[in-house]
Amino acid sequence: MGILEKISEIEKEIARTQKNKATEYHLGLLKAKLAKYRAQLLEPSKSASSKGEGFDVMKSGDARVALIGFPSVGKSIFLSLMTSTASEAASYEFTTLTCIPGVIEYKGANIQLLDLPGIIEGAAQGKGRGRQVIAVARTADVVIMMLDATKGEVQRSLLEKELESVGIRLNKHKPNIYFKPKKGGGISFNSTVTLTQCSEKLVQLILHEYKIFNAEVLFREDCSPDEFIDVIVGNRVYMPCLYVYNKIDQISMEEVDRLARKPNSVVISCGMKLNLDYLLEMLWEYLALTCIYTKKRGQRPDFTDAIILRKGASVEHVCHRIHRSLASQFKYALVWGTSTKYSPQRVGLTHTMEHEDVIQIVKK
Q1: What is d(CA 242, CA 58) in angstroms, rounded to the nearest whole number?
Q2: Could you tell me which residue ranges the TGS domain spans (predicted)?
Q3: Would you say 54 and 23 are in contact if contact means Cβ atoms under 8 Å apart?
Q4: Would you say 36 and 210 are in contact if contact means Cβ atoms under 8 Å apart?
Q5: What is the pLDDT of residues 37-56, one digit of tens each?
Q6: Alpha helix stretches (DSSP H) within 43-177
Q7: What is the predicted pLDDT for the residue at 50?
Q8: Residues above pLDDT 70, as percent of the chain
Q9: What is the Cα gyration radius of the chain?
Q10: What is the rounded CA–CA span in Å between residue 301 and residue 321?
Q11: Could you tell me if 311 and 333 are in contact, meaning their C-beta atoms sit under 8 angstroms apart?
């Protein structure tokens, strides 16, 4: 029996098992086995001598956004509208066969946008070059999931399932569980909160399935067995996802209103160029980027060339971005903007910068 057959057997077993107190250990074990087989499926086969044809693109710009969706939902038209890159678009499926990069210039930042080939059901098992598409998506900062508004919710649930099975967790944060394998001493289990979904016995069963018999486990939040398995495996990617419903010009206003009110969702029409500016605003919010402007002594700030950093960046990050030796020669900095109590404020290396702050660095 191959890995695919084993996975489908376990999925059927999970589907037909009732969820109650008596079966929770059995379900936990099945989920652990399922995660193990899926990890094996993603590992490249040792026997393959010829190298596979991947299509990862070199990372450029300040952030990377991957466009994922079924064939013929409007990904290539969206890329052509947003960037100066022309991606071939036609009314038949699989027009795009490789990864096409483009650059969105917005608020002084260069955002790399990747137009990936359409995903089909079973992509996680390698159907329709699905593995390469998903491998590129793992390297992105934000995923834009393009959906056809005329098809309802079917596409969204199928795509979420495909991405979930290869370890991409959308709009979720990393579980707050401390886990450390040890050389001896058995399994020490503790929790700082009341656990309703996991118990000590279930944790031990899952660890034994992974042949871990000595470890330290501390639950800092009430997590499910799936989240605990994610922590053990350790190769999960947690990333924000924006659900973009295209072709809204073909559905009723009531349906558009319903889709627009869903969490993490934006409705657009590439054909009629509707709501694209709001999508860019949302994308900027999800990327959590900040623009920092620099100023020389006795001169006006340079608003033409911004330093783009992640939200929560400190003065030290700004120094490293300008020059790697600047932080060691740093004396103090003067900052104007919303991160200070008064302008200018004299700050040290640990001061957190905010969007559109102006900084003047003084060396020793």
Answers
A1: 23
A2: 288-363
A3: no
A4: yes
A5: 777 766 655 444 445 555 66
A6: 75-82, 130-138, 154-165
A7: 43
A8: 87
A9: 24
A10: 17
A11: no
- Ordered by where they begin, the domains of the chain are 3-41+175-233 (no CATH), 58-172+237-287 (3.40.50.300), 290-363 (3.10.20.30)
The structure tokens listed for 314 are 């400190």
Average pLDDT score over residue span 18-28: 78
Distance of alpha carbon 49 from alpha carbon 212, whole angstroms: 33
Res 28 pLDDT > 70: yes
Given a contact cutoff of 8 angstroms between Cβ atoms, the answer to whether 188 and 161 are in contact is no
* Of 71-75, 126-130, 227-231, minimum mean pLDDT range: 126-130
**What does the pLDDT average to over 6-31?**
80
Contact between 260 and 237 (Cβ < 8 Å)? no
Pairing of strands 63-69, 142-148: parallel
Token pair for residue 37? Answer: 């087989």
Q: What is the pTM of this model?
A: 0.75
Residue 121: predicted pLDDT: 58
Burial class (CB within 10 angstroms; exposed 0-12, middle 13-18, buried 19+) of 14 = middle
Q: DSSP of 18-73, one letter per residue?
A: --SGGGHHHHHHHHHHHHHHHHHHHSPPSS--SPP--------SSEEEEEEE-TTS
Distance CA 155, CA 146 (A): 9
For the stretch 276-313, pLDDT in tens is 888 888 888 888 888 888 888 888 888 888 888 888 88
Query: Distance of CA 40 to CAs 7, 46, 48, 233, Å?
Result: 11, 11, 15, 12
